[in-house]
Amino acid sequence: MDERTEDRRDDVFVDAAALAAELAEEHPADIAEALDEQEPKTASAVLASLPREQQVEILDGPDVDLTSELIEALPVEEAVRLVSDMSADRAADLFRWMDEPARSHLFARLAPETQAELGRLLAWPEHSAGGLMTTEFVTVPSSWTVGETLRHIRETERTRETIYAIYVLDPLSQKLLKAVTLRRLITGEPEQPILDVAPRHDPITADPLMDREDVARLITKYDLLAVPVVDENAHVLGIVTVDDMIDAIIEEGTEDAQKFGGMEALDEPYMEIGFFSMLKKRGGWLSILFLGEMLTANAMQHFEDELESAIVLTLFIPLIMSSGGNSGSQATSLIIRALALGEIKLKDWWRVALRELPSGLVLGSILAALGMTRITVWQLAGFHDYGEYWMLVAATVGAALVAIVTFGSLIGSMLPFVLRRAGVDPASASAPFVATFVDVTGLVIYFTVAMVILNGTLL
Amino acid sequence: MDERTEDRRDDVFVDAAALAAELAEEHPADIAEALDEQEPKTASAVLASLPREQQVEILDGPDVDLTSELIEALPVEEAVRLVSDMSADRAADLFRWMDEPARSHLFARLAPETQAELGRLLAWPEHSAGGLMTTEFVTVPSSWTVGETLRHIRETERTRETIYAIYVLDPLSQKLLKAVTLRRLITGEPEQPILDVAPRHDPITADPLMDREDVARLITKYDLLAVPVVDENAHVLGIVTVDDMIDAIIEEGTEDAQKFGGMEALDEPYMEIGFFSMLKKRGGWLSILFLGEMLTANAMQHFEDELESAIVLTLFIPLIMSSGGNSGSQATSLIIRALALGEIKLKDWWRVALRELPSGLVLGSILAALGMTRITVWQLAGFHDYGEYWMLVAATVGAALVAIVTFGSLIGSMLPFVLRRAGVDPASASAPFVATFVDVTGLVIYFTVAMVILNGTLL
């Protein structure tokens, strides 16, 4: 028994050294991927056999789950040393992610200045500019030359991966004056003042509480590699870099797609999330929508007499309801996305309504034409007998379709404004929510139209 | 009359000069935004009054619609001069966008070498790495030192906005050996060979025909600012930069959201697309879904006898149908996103099926419990009378919900695999498509379950 355990340990040891040698020439992102497939014990052994610089690069990768696994599997002195070398934003992510008590144990072992730096970062909300920023950035006084700046970077900033721009400060007030990209810096002559190679415009900056979606908009609009986060005194607190922003944009996209599909955002990859966590995130919304949809049964009960006297009306209920849902879902997805991209603002709601009203009328008329043709063809060709008053039935279906599609387009386009106004993410389950709402109102519209048109004949 | 025209021309002239002076200190992206709000004539007059460098920066912005408007409104010599100075990828975008005959007229006036360069870029498909790349990049032979490289950039590459990395080539074969980021370059000593500051791993490269979504995945995974596009001989053809990639990721997100909402991707902002173009993109899918949904009428007709003998069954049709649709839409949006992010591959379809089957059963059981409780409470509290066999009706609704939600989850999760396999974008209208499919089959399931459970009583 003891021998077998020994053997197994040896195996792990041999594997780790061999794997480390094999992986050493790979890109850190590929090494991380390979480590992710190993047991934490093996993975941390491989990590320990890699060159120092690569260790930090791997831990600085975007997979915080892997980083925390590796850190927890390492001897604590080693873990402390590596966490101190990690970029500050990634280390903060790690502490956001780790579970207690490992989290507190590790934090307590860090040097006081590292604790203070991480504490400042962790104080900001996770999805704000402050929560995304890193504190590794380069500032120089505006009195320096290009050559002095380059020498400073060469001598003191060797290890910083995130030098995309140099931030030029007023030597007295330490206020941010200009941002100089590396490209501009190296195209300057060494003896030129740094302000000579700075752009004319003021630096683009973010407030620490700015939401990550707004930071993404800044970075996209101004084609930035990094945006400095400044406080109310124009002092630089940190920078948000473009690679973190891409990760955030993709994460937002996934969350929006999932919310839009009618569930809570999973926050974890589909294959990795636990079965019951997934059920919870899906079952909650599914039940809420189900409870909402129960109102259709109430609506139907209300019209039960009409149903019994004109059973032919029931044949078209699914068709009419789904058309309202589809038109609402189109309008909602259009407007959510346009709002998210900043193409339209809250105050544009009436412009949107003025576009959706005629759109709905035209789209509804197209479907009405299709629906009425269907009934007419089936009736005349003898596929089905819709009864003596089939023309009135066709008219009812047509009129109801125009009304419901118009209503669906209007409600679908206005709901995102209402949600945004109320401070709720417009993507939250909105397509199924619109569909449910339109289903219930659609039934009422359908039967009301029927009572008007079929009054004195079928009803 | 003549006098008024004169006056108006004067106004435009004064406006343009004043506006140019006012905007000169702004960021080019903000100037572009201001110009976008002006008439093309005024905007091009303002552009002409700005410093040369800013003119090119504005035209290099992401709004190709604005760029083409400005270029078309300028005198042709001026337009030719500016297009020659634009970055090659933006100029290629411009020619992709412009209408004939302006496009051909402008192209014919360009210098032969510019024509050849643009021709090479325009030959690649628009959404491929080749179609996105720009030809402004810096290569140096591997025999150079850091100092030589820096001097080369300073002397010859002043105007290139896209220097994110230096590509080191084999001096003989011109094959790409290493990619050196600017940061690594400036932290090296001037006399060091450039290969000394290169990373250990081989450069990450893209094939010119690689789809933009795959290029985005490379850039995200490896945290790159630019990825070199190389041919089969490892010769660098161009680079795709991170800012173009962000634009592409956001555009893909919008397209996916719109397709998912059940329409064709608009390709233009909601407020800018023409009314009839929008109707076409929405009406097409709406009609297709409507035609599909007509099958529900067929299904209902098929069960008309059952409907007449058990009108109570109709009350729950909308409830049951929408539950199937919602569960299908959840599963579909989860899987589409996981496929898009590469979290799951085509070959994982059976793993997904094995997760969705129990998920569907549990979710369906939850809804069944809710639905049966609703019927029981309403019956016992006297809110509504579901008849003598109300318990059997409740059982029918419950069993149908379990079956339909399970079926919806399975179909919804498998459809993206089928579409991807068939070479179709899984995002294409899939949620409404799944809902339509599940509506029709859901009705059949409902009535079949009813015939089994209610056989000999209501039916």
UniProtKB/TrEMBL annotation, chains A, B:
Intracellular or extracellular location(s): Cell membrane; Membrane
Function summary: Acts as a magnesium transporter.
Domain of life of the native organism: Bacteria
CDD domains: CBS_pair_Mg_transporter
One annotated Gene Ontology cellular component of this protein: plasma membrane
Entry's family note: Belongs to the SLC41A transporter family.
One Gene Ontology MF term: metal ion binding
SUPFAM superfamilies: CBS-domain pair (SSF54631), MgtE membrane domain-like (SSF161093), MgtE N-terminal domain-like (SSF158791)
Protein known as: Magnesium transporter MgtE
Membrane-crossing residue ranges in chain numbering: 357-377, 389-419, 431-454
Keywords, sorted A to Z: CBS domain, Cell membrane, Magnesium, Membrane, Metal-binding, Transmembrane, Transmembrane helix, Transport
Topology with respect to the bilayer: Multi-pass membrane protein
Organism: Ancylobacter aquaticus
Gene3D superfamilies documented for this protein: CBS-domain (3.10.580.10), MgtE N-terminal domain-like (1.25.60.10), SLC41 divalent cation transporters, integral membrane domain (1.10.357.20)
Record domain CBS: where: 133-197, 199-255
Main subcellular location: membrane
Subunit: Homodimer.
